[in-house]
Automatic annotation (TrEMBL):
Protein name: IS3 family transposase
Gene Ontology biological-process entries: DNA integration
Provenance organism: Arthrobacter livingstonensis
Protein function: Involved in the transposition of the insertion sequence.
Stretches assigned to the Integrase catalytic domain: 139-301
Length: 312
């Protein structure tokens, strides 16, 4: 048996992994006694495991373990047990949160977690601050009527890449985003233009932000006025007044960006776009939507609205 096999097995292997490995090598003609000595497991324990008769419970546990692993791997090892459970439930798998947590703990599968992200707010003109029209009520009955936005830094080998987002409060979908090597007001305007051009901004809608210079700028104010969008701002320096935008950036940094290194802004842009559009909007479950991804919640609302119009 090659030495490489032992080194691979030692990397986070459980006792069951070891037994399975021994069984595999036994089937290939290796001596059980020698393998058990080399791997440091009692031969009697291996035989007891090998000869045990599977019960319905053990079979079900094994099936669930495979399903949990598939879902955990498909998230690029991002999801914790609650997210994995939510996705399994959406696929019709009957399993409790506690069972998923136990299976993940047994196998050493843990969600990736990183440090908190750096805030990017550069104080703007206090005379251009708008009234808070949200009041920490981050809900909306209809998409496109109440939205929030913010900016964050993304480090690359070429320097900073700046990301501005627009998030729909009804579905939590990132309906507008823009990236550039600067954080001027035009960056935020570009994100709002994407939301508008995709049909995600309603007339007289509310766009909520912090007091950053970009959001108090004449350029963004003129754009909002010209597009019949009302601006709203929380208190200066109070992150809770824009909690949804802060939370989205936290997910992006913790689940994705901090785990990679990008040599160029273009590489970072492409990867971030994939996270937003393919993962966050269309695959990642969101608690606000009872576990549905934001894009699914948006599509369901639009379908229901069309049906109601047809029936009227």
């Amino acid at each position: 048996m090659p030495k490489k096999s032992f080194s691979v097995l030692r990397q986070g292997a459980t006792v069951i992994d070891t037994y399975r490995f021994v069984q595999q090598e036994e089937n290939a003609g290796e001596k059980v006694a020698w393998m058990c000595r080399q791997l440091g497991v009692p031969r009697s324990s291996y035989y007891r495991w090998r000869d045990a008769t599977d019960t319905p419970t053990t079979i079900r546990h094994r099936e669930l373990t495979d399903q949990v692993k598939t879902m955990f791997d498909s998230s690029d090892e991002i999801f914790g047990h609650r997210m994995v459970h939510t996705k399994l439930a959406a696929d019709g798998v009957a399993v409790s949160v506690g069972t998923v947590a136990t299976i993940m703990a047994e196998n050493g599968w843990a969600a990736r977690r990183m440090r908190a992200f750096k805030r990017t707010t550069i104080p703007g003109d206090p005379d251009k601050v708008f009234k808070d029209l949200i009041g920490r009520d981050f809900t909306a009955e209809t998409p496109g009527t109440r939205l929030v936005g913010d900016i964050t830094y993304l480090r690359t080998g070429e320097g900073w890449l700046y990301l501005a987002t627009v998030i729909d409060l009804c579905t939590r979908m990132i309906v507008g985003w823009a990236m550039a090597d600067h954080m001027r007001a035009s960056l935020c305007v570009s994100a709002l233009e994407m939301a508008r051009d995709k049909g995600h901004l309603q007339a007289n809608g509310i766009f909520h932000s912090d007091h950053g210079a970009q959001y108090t700028s004449r350029e963004l104010g003129a754009w909002c006025t010209g597009n019949n969008i009302r601006q709203s701002m929380g208190l200066a320096g109070v992150c809770w007044d824009n909690a949804v935008a802060e939370s989205a950036f936290s997910s992006l940094k913790n689940e994705f960006y901090h785990h990679y290194s990008f040599d160029t802004r273009q590489a970072a842009r492409q990867a971030t776009m994939h996270y937003i559009e393919a993962f966050y909007n269309r695959w990642r479950p969101h608690s606000h939507n009872d576990g549905l991804p934001p894009a699914t919640a948006m599509a369901n609302f639009n379908t229901q609205n069309q049906q109601q119009r047809a029936a009227a």
